[in-house]
Task: inverse folding
């Protein structure tokens, strides 16, 4: 095949995912240990010893990205994984005690007016 | 003032406050443009299970479940180190309604983008937020000067509840999009103060 025609081929990421998203989780679609809000913050807890096996590259990537607090959606976007997949992986890490999770305040709770004022001031300063 | 932070079990870092704002509206109303003009825009993939049983007990039959990938526009505005705004351009198609439920859960509010050439496109978004009680503002994206309508005429045409702000803006201009967000947050604060006062 001439080299020119190759340039129109779908290569690498353009070709789309090679494996279906939940292959990363071995087909598991729900995180162990309960639901995880997409706005929850994740922080890696310093591990004294390397946990025994079972961690996949994606788990390690999450731990590396969560060295400071990072929301679930930000992890998904940064690591180019879907939110659902990240949740399952976070469930694993949570069960293994490798991360702390901080859920957002209850949805029923009104937003703090002082926080809203700070947002308005911050937006004006943009 | 109550702290809005969650409990900490000895983590060394402070946990920021992250607020969620939805940017909704019909196809081509300017959602992507708006998210991109005020924040650093990135794609966010959600892979959703359309059918199937919820719960951890029933994950054996994964092969039989239907999943669909939805890519949303997603952007962050850092107000301070401890306070971040996240914008989500919500997928407009009806078959993605299920996604909205989680997105609107705990959201600060929503911006419904309206295109006066296709005003009806934003009706479903308005209905949705009205039913859920999510505060929203309507932002009329004025692509060209001759398309400008009076804001109150748009409000009447949409049969909005009194008090729902209608803003005219250009989604391409960062200041325009920023002002829409300010309008929304001020509206949310007004509602909050009113409901606190009536208790």
Result:
């Amino acid at each position: 095949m001439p080299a020119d025609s190759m340039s129109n081929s779908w290569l690498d990421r353009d070709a789309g995912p090679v494996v279906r998203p939940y292959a990363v989780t071995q087909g598991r679609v729900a995180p162990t240990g309960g639901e995880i809000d997409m706005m929850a913050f994740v922080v890696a807890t310093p591990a004294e010893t390397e946990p025994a096996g079972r961690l996949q590259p994606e788990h390690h990537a999450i731990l590396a990205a969560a060295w400071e607090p990072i929301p679930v959606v930000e992890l998904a976007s940064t690591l180019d994984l879907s939110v659902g997949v990240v949740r399952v992986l976070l469930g694993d890490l949570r069960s293994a005690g490798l991360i702390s999770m901080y859920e957002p305040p209850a949805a029923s709770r009104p937003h703090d007016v002082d926080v809203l004022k700070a947002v308005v001031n911050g937006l004006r300063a943009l | 003032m109550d702290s809005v932070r969650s409990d900490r079990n000895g983590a060394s870092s402070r946990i920021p406050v992250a607020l969620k704002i939805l940017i909704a509206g019909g196809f081509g109303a300017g959602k992507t443009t708006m998210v991109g003009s005020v924040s650093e825009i990135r794609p966010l993939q959600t892979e959703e299970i359309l059918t199937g049983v919820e719960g951890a007990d029933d994950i054996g039959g994964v092969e039989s479940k239907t999943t669909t990938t939805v890519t949303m526009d997603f952007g962050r505005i850092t107000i301070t180190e401890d306070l971040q705004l996240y914008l989500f351009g919500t997928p407009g198609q009806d078959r993605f309604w299920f996604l909205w439920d989680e997105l609107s859960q705990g959201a600060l509010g929503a911006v419904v983008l309206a295109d006066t050439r296709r005003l009806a496109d934003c009706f479903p978004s308005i209905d949705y937020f009205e039913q859920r009680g999510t505060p929203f503002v309507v932002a009329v994206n004025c692509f060209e000067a001759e398309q400008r309508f009076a804001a109150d005429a748009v409000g009447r045409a949409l049969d909005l509840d009194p008090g729902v702000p209608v803003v005219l803006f250009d989604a391409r201009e960062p200041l325009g999009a920023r002002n829409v967000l300010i309008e929304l947050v001020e509206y949310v604060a007004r509602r909050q103060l009113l409901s606190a006062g009536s208790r």
